[in-house]
């Protein structure tokens, strides 16, 4: 009997000790920021802005809070202290970086490493760069009528407002590109729009965390195709006709000739003609589209080869042909010598 | 037959538990290319040792490792098992602590370390005191909970795969075999506990082939998932490549929107079970080689877990933990290489009746 009482006591003690019910902050006592904006202020301080949706009917309300300080971690800590509720960063979906931080390559690298290592911030949050003031971009949403609090993120979300020109680049991909031997990355650039929440400006090319240049929406679309993204839904205007791409596929063949890499890639497009001027034949539209896309590709390739940026990620495909230690020099040794035979086959649906 | 199935599952779970956290790190540091060759080398070496071990044990039906050592000589048993038990206690301590750190970073950021340690130690020690029957039945239960999650994690992370990230399928650098880290790798695939379970069943080598194949496939997946997602250049810079790989997957329809939580939960199940088995081994050894019959094995188990709880709590930071964990794993490798050979040679000799004093 005495033994049973002892067991019972232990049982009750475990319920108290092991339930793990301490430090719990209930969901209604938490604030869940959705978007984080960051910029530099007078060369030294970091300024962090958070957009926090207010959970009410319709989800159309949100507020922004701003704080600045010497390091990003300290600012996040200050925000936690000053905010009424407990801030929980685990649902952060988008990081907006102002160009005064993004242009400084050491700072950007440090920031990306911080985001990756941080245990609070999920590494699958998307990254974007803006030329505008970050605060304006985040608060712009409040002035628009009938817009969801999550619409800044939805702009990049493949399940929502995404269009084939837009990159959705999560933190871990930017982090990966800091070290990758063979692949550079393009981060979308946006501005706050007059009538829409955001306008898409193109993309900034990052090489080891350094911005090497920008590309426009047309070119970023092409880069997206090489990233195995379907071109579906893309509308192209040829002057005398407009078409919409309904399906696309890309095939690459790689080989080495006299120690210089050769790629032949074949892009197949299925198109549908939306409008045309009178008397224009299908054949001409197809020819013109193929020529336009090929021209656009070669122009971008030439430009990037000149500045040693492998934006298409061709180097990835030579991992089997070139040894790992030689791949280190891919951008400088092999990529400028790369020959690409790019062929577009368009077809009516 | 059920027993055999349970032992097979136990083998898989223990290897899973040890493989997730340190294993991929070691592989990436050992080689830049042809990772699978290294994994296969390790797995085949493990298979070879298991074969020797099983062959040796088959000379002594209905006896476990401790009985056999006691038969060779009491002094040898002491000489072997005292460091062995100390090593097991260390492994339990650091293994639980390493997992605790990861669990905290995944989903319990505000809970203090000691609380999670108590929880894990309490359940492991409790399971261990209940004896081998409970542990084996538990293995089936845990496998039903955890294995689907493991498989789900593997498949869901494939959305982020870039198959081009892997460089050079062939051509493993020779020096990576001779590295001390390869030695550590072996310690992460424990099998000595099999020797404690043979007294109950007629476990043979052939019945372990299927568990071995699944464990090898698992090791390959643990190494290749982060590699396909991040690539070799990045993976060497991450502290927990596998956890990061899980975290990179964005499934918006999934509960909590992140599968890392489920990975963390499965880690809890795995670590509790693996340490229960180790603590049970400590109890078995202590029971058989100590002369004081008054102390029951469960007391030994409680004592050992309190001791290792202390060790787990004392170590101040993460880097030291990982260092100590690797050291204890290295020591485990020594036992894993020595034991099969001793048992095999002794068994071979006593069957030939070379040892004259055989009964």
Write the SSE topology.
The complex is a heterodimer of chains A (349) and B (359).
Chain A: H1 2-18, E1 30-31, E2 35-41, E3 45-53, E4 62-69, H2 72-82, E5 86-87, E6 94-98, H3 99-102, H4 105-117, E7 126-130, H5 134-143, H6 151-154, H7 171-179, E8 185-192, E9 198-207, E10 210-215, H8 217-226, E11 235-237, E12 241-257, E13 260-276, H9 282-306, H10 324-327, H11 330-334, E14 339-348
Parallel strand pairs in A: 1-5, 2-6, 6-7, 7-8, 13-14
Antiparallel strand pairs in A: 2-3, 3-4, 8-9, 9-10, 11-12, 12-13
Helix pairs in contact in A: 4-7
Chain B: H1 2-19, H2 23-30, H3 35-58, H4 65-72, H5 74-107, H6 113-129, H7 132-156, H8 175-178, H9 180-187, H10 194-197, H11 209-230, H12 232-235, H13 241-247, H14 260-289, H15 297-314, H16 318-352
Helix pairs in contact in B: 1-7, 1-11, 1-14, 2-9, 3-11, 3-16, 4-5, 5-6, 5-14, 5-15, 5-16, 6-14, 6-15, 7-14, 9-16, 11-13, 14-15
């Amino acid at each position: 009997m005495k033994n049973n009482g002892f067991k019972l006591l232990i049982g009750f003690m475990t319920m108290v000790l092991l339930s793990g019910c301490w430090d719990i902050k209930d969901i209604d006592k938490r604030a869940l920021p959705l978007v984080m904006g960051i910029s530099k202020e007078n060369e030294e301080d970091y300024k962090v802005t958070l957009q926090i949706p207010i959970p009410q009917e319709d989800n159309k309300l949100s507020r922004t809070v701003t704080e600045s300080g010497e390091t990003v971690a300290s600012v996040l800590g200050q925000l936690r202290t000053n905010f009424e509720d407990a801030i929980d960063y685990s649902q952060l979906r988008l990081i907006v970086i102002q160009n005064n931080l993004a242009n400084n390559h050491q700072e950007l690298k440090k920031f990306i490493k911080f985001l990756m290592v941080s245990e609070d911030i999920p590494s699958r949050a998307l990254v974007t760069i803006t030329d505008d003031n970050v605060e304006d971009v985040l608060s712009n949403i409040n002035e628009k009528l009938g817009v969801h609090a999550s619409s800044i993120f939805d702009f990049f979300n493949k399940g929502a407002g995404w269009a084939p020109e837009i990159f959705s680049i999560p933190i871990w991909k930017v982090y990966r590109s800091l070290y990758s031997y063979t692949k550079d990355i393009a981060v979308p650039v946006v501005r706050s729009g007059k009538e829409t929440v955001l306008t898409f400006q193109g993309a900034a090319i990052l090489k080891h965390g350094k911005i090497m240049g920008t590309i426009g929406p047309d070119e970023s679309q092409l880069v997206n195709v090489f990233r195995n993204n379907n071109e579906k839904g893309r509308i192209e205007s040829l002057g005398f006709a407009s078409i919409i791409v309904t399906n696309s596929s890309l095939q690459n063949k790689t080989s080495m000739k006299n120690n210089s890499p050769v790629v032949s890639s074949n892009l197949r497009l299925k198109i549908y003609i939306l409008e045309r001027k009178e008397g224009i034949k299908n054949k001409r539209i197809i020819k013109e589209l193929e020529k336009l896309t090929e021209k656009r590709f070669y122009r971008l390739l030439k430009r990037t080869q000149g500045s040693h940026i492998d934006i298409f990620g061709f180097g990835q495909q030579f991992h089997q042909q070139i040894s790992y230690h030689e791949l280190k020099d891919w951008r400088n040794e092999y990529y400028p010598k790369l020959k690409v035979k790019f062929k577009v086959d368009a077809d009516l649906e | 037959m059920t027993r055999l199935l349970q032992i097979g599952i136990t083998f898989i779970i223990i290897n899973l538990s040890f493989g997730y956290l340190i294993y991929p790190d070691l592989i990436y540091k050992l080689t830049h290319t042809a990772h699978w060759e290294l994994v296969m080398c390790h797995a085949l070496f493990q298979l070879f040792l298991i074969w020797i071990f099983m062959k040796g044990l088959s000379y002594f039906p209905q006896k476990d490792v401790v009985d056999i050592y006691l038969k060779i000589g009491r002094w040898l048993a002491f000489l072997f098992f005292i460091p062995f038990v100390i090593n097991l206690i260390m492994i339990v301590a650091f293994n639980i602590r390493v997992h605790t750190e990861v669990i905290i970073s995944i989903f319990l950021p505000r809970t203090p370390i000691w609380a999670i340690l108590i929880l894990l130690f309490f359940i492991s020690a409790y399971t261990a005191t209940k004896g081998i029957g409970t542990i084996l039945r538990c293995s089936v239960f845990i496998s039903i909970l955890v294995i689907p999650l493991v498989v789900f994690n593997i498949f869901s992370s494939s959305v982020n795969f870039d198959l081009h990230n892997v460089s050079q399928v062939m051509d493993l650098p020779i020096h990576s075999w001779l590295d001390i880290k390869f030695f550590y790798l072996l310690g992460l695939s424990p099998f000595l506990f099999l020797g404690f379970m043979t007294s109950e069943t007629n476990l043979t080598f052939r019945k372990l082939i299927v568990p071995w194949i699944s464990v090898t496939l698992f090791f390959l997946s643990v190494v290749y998932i982060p590699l396909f997602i991040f690539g070799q250049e990045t993976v060497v810079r991450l502290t927990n490549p596998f956890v990061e790989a899980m975290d990179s997957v964005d499934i918006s329809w999934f509960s909590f929107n992140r599968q890392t939580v489920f990975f963390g939960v499965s880690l809890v199940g795995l670590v509790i079970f693996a340490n229960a088995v180790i603590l049970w081994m400590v109890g078995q050894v202590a029971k058989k080689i100590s002369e004081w019959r008054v102390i029951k094995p469960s007391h030994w188990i409680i004592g050992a877990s309190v001791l290792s709880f202390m060790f787990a709590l004392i170590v101040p930071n993460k880097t030291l933990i990982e260092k100590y964990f690797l050291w204890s794993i290295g020591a485990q490798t020594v036992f894993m290489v020595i034991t099969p050979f001793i048992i095999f040679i002794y068994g071979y000799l006593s069957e030939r009746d070379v040892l004259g004093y055989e009964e």
